[in-house]
């Protein structure tokens, strides 16, 4: 199945918001303002940052300097691994709003499940409440496997809108994708370009067949 992948393409989240399908990642880019400005000028509608990346302020500056209306751009950030508790996660949301210079976040994810079950659930409760308070429009998780997703479901809590995981032809994570499909959680791929290592015959041949080479090149 082919799908439209323009900058304006979106997918509907279980929370009702539309997530732009293409996003600019800012991992390992301490100086991401020029890239964000160039991307916004080119037409990108979605920027992915994280508290861990240390570049939220640059993302916010780029958004303001670009002159693009705030409501046209989708900003995702992520709770850091050492911020897993109700109190710390709640203040992380406030801190990210301040650092990005925004009145609301489009999406806040828990960056990874790397703590323990009670802390993960308390962190999730903090995000649920931040959403109720209007600070965040959509909430989600990242690097969660089925066990971590089931914890949320079994606790009777609101399910995430998004699970951001590594996903590309060499890392398909089919069990997680199937769970997310079943429960209407959007799977967001990170490292979709396989960190540049896509020179495998089965990939280049398939790309040629479906004329996807131009998509890969124009997205870099
Ligand atoms: N939630 C998480 O835990 C998590 C983890 C990882 C990433 N992410 C998000 O996903 C975004 C993208 O992931 P990613 O940056 O790890 O991986 P990616 O998008 O698959 O790949 C980017 C890497 O591939 C290289 N590359 C891209 N096209 C290339 C080409 N044509 N030839 C050679 N090298 C090429 C780039 O090198 P150069 O930059 O040197 O050109 C860069 O190092 C991140 O920026 C971040 O926002 C999230």
UniProtKB/TrEMBL annotation:
Domain of life: Eukaryota
Single Gene Ontology MF annotation: oxidoreductase activity
InterPro entries: AKR, Aldo/ket_reductase_CS, NAD(P)_OxRdtase_dom_sf, NADP_OxRdtase_dom
Record SUPFAM superfamilies: NAD(P)-linked oxidoreductase (SSF51430)
NADP-dependent oxidoreductase domain residues: 33-196
Protein name, per record: NADP-dependent oxidoreductase domain-containing protein
Organism annotation: Marasmius oreades
